[in-house]
Design goal:
Blueprint (H helix, E strand, L loop, with lengths): L2 E5 L4 E3 L6 E2 L4 E6 L3 E2 L4 E3 L4 E12 L4 E7 L2 E8 L7 E12 L4 E6 L5 E3 L5 E9 L1
Length: 133
């Protein structure tokens, strides 16, 4: 069994930064199979198969918010919202099924100039093995 669910807990607003960063979800809720590394923010497939990933965020509306899920350093899907002077909070998320080979890496990037709220259980990343190949 391979299942993980993690959340970003950095005490509040995380970003914006001058360069793109891999978001390190530093609080582990579940990590059966030990495939998620909270020090790097990277999930490494322990076996080949089809996996399902979700990621969600909460952010203030006064900065751009965007997260991009990457497979082996290539963008796959994203979620985002533009900056707004009247919208005080944003929420977003996305999900994807991916066919992975053993050793493939999946992570979520926070682009330069973007931010998320990394507190109070709002910003999460989860995944699980649906079927091994």
């Amino acid at each position: 069994m391979v299942v993980f669910s993690v959340k970003a807990e950095e005490g509040g607003a995380y970003g914006p930064f001058c360069s793109e960063k891999t978001l390190k979800y530093n609080t582990v809720i579940t990590n059966i199979g030990d495939a998620y590394d909270k020090c790097t923010g990277v999930f490494t497939a322990p076996v080949a198969g089809v996996y399902y990933f979700t990621f969600f965020y909460h952010a203030g509306g006064h900065h751009v918010s965007k997260l991009i899920l990457h497979k082996n350093k290539e963008p796959v899907v994203m979620t985002s919202d533009h900056k707004s002077g009247s919208d005080t909070a944003d929420n977003g998320g996305n999900a994807v099924f991916l066919k992975l080979e053993k050793g493939d890496e999946v992570c979520v990037h926070l682009p330069a100039g973007c931010h998320v709220w990394a507190s109070e259980d709002h910003t999460t990343f989860s995944g699980f093995l649906v079927n091994s190949c």
